[in-house]
Amino acid sequence: MANVSVYNIEGNEVGTIDLNDAVFGVEVNEHLVHMAVVNQLANNRQGTQKAKTRSEVSGGGRKPWRQKGTGHARQGSTRAPQWTGGGVVFAPVPRNYSFKMNKKEKRAALKSALTAKVEEKKFIVVDEIKFDEIKTKNFANILKNLDVKKALVVLEDGNANVELSARNIADVKTAKTNTINVYDILKYNTVIATKAAVANIEEVYA
Fold first, then answer.
1. CATH of span 2-45+98-205
2. What is the pTM of this model?
C-alpha cells in the first residue's frame, strides 16, 4: 500500500494515510489513459462545421457560354469550385466525433492516472478543507501553504463554500469524487484531495 502524508490547511504534516492499492497502486496502462483523454476531447467536439458544395450555393443555373467557339475553356456553371463564389470541393459537413469506451476501460484509465500522480508524488491529501464564508483569499493561502500552483482539488459533497472560493483562481479546478476524469488529472500538475474525498474514491473504484 502506498503511504502518503496528510497535511492541514496550514501546510503542516499531521499524519499519514494508506492508499488502497486497488485504486492508487495499479499497473499504469498508458494506452487506456491516452484513449480516455482522446475519448473525452472527441466527445466534447461540437462537430458543427459546414461549408456549401456546388449543389448548395445559389446561382449558376445556366451555362455561362456555349460549349464551343468562344475561345474560353468550356464551363457548365458559374458555381463550380474554380469560380469565385463557387462551391467548396469535398466541403465539411456536421458530424459526430464521439466514440464509446467500456466502463472497465474507463475505470482502469482513471486508476492508472491516479496511480501515476501518487508515483510522481503529485498527490496531496489534506485532512479537511472547510470555509465558513466564500473567500478566494483563504483558498489562495491554502495553495501557498502547500506550495502548489496548478491543481485539481477533489472535494467531498456539500462543500459549496470551498468550491466558490476556488472558482476565481487561475489554474485551479475543483471537482467532486463523482466528476473526476483522466483529462483533468493529467492536465493539472498536482491533485489535492481531502481525506473524505479519498475515502469516497476508494469506495467507488476499489
1. 3.40.1370.10
2. 0.81
